[in-house]
Amino acid sequence: MASQQAIVYQLDLFSEQNQRAIPYSERREGVSGAQARKGAQIKGEGQQGRALAGGLMAVICSQQNIGQAYKRVKQNKGVAGIDQMPIGEFAPWFSKHGSALIKQLLKGDYTPESVKQVEIPKHNGGKRKLGIPTVTDRIIQQAISQVLSPIYEPMFSNHSYGFRPKRNAHQALRRAGDYVKEGRLWV
Q: Using an 8 Å Cβ cutoff, are 22 and 14 in contact?
């Protein structure tokens, strides 16, 4: 019974045919009773709380999703991480080692590499530390984001600006300024 419940909840989040996220709908979570099904799944899986991870990880690790993540990371033209592998070498590397990487991800055995630290000059003369993950880790992060963002983004408050698509700190400051102009004492 628990495995049937897991399938029902995952079908609420993804279409079976092309394994892509579907937008928020009334059929999700509390409206359809999916929250209760999710609770039963997690309880059925024991203390690990990873009942939904298998289905999501399969979507995250799909060829289509990894390929799209690679394209997005490549567009950013970032530098190599601590392993010194540039973005241009990822595709040949992935053709040789991709199946092992995906197996590690699906089993939960993957460990990200250390982050390369560099210092960037600030306007005031100081320096700011910046961490640069390896290309592989950036692609994995992007692949995860592509699957989870459509699920969770609609649940965030319209007043939340941190680390969200098409939102930034400048917008948050403008909105805070508007609140001050309105006479509010708390922002």
A: yes
